[in-house]
Amino acid sequence: MGHILKEYAEERGYVLAAAYGDTPIALHYYYVKPGFPDAKRIVSAIRDVDYCWWMNGRRCRNYADGKDRLCGPD
After folding, report:
1. Model-level pTM?
2. Distance CA 4, CA 8 (A)
C-alpha cells in the first residue's frame, strides 16, 4: 500500500512532509500538495510534530529527511 501511495503522490508533485515510524519498516507518511495555500507552513508544522508510535507510545523518527533524527526530546 505504501508503494501505491508513494507513486501516486510523486506523480502528482506532492511533497513528502514526513515519514514517521518507530522503525524504518512501518511508517506513517504525510504528503502535502505544494500549490496549496500555506503548504510550506503545513509541511513545517508536520515536521515539527512530537510524533509517538500508536502501538507503544515511543517517540518516532522522521525517516523522510534521511537524517534519522528524533522527533522531539529523548
Report:
1. 0.78
2. 6
β-pair partners for 28: 20
* Gap between the Cα atoms of 12 and 4, Å rounded: 12
Q: Is residue 29 part of a domain?
A: yes
Q: How do residues 19-69 score in pLDDT, each as one tens digit?
A: 999 888 889 999 999 988 899 999 999 999 999 998 899 999 999 875 544
Is 20 domain-assigned? Answer: yes
Please classify residue 6 by burial: count the beta carbons closer than 10 Å to its beta carbon, then call 0-12 exposed, 13-18 middle and 19+ buried: middle
- The torsion angle over the Cα atoms of residues 17, 6, 2 and 5, rounded to 10 degrees, is 100
45 within domain boundaries: yes
Q: Total structural domains in the chain? A: 1
Q: Which domain holds residue 56?
A: 2-63
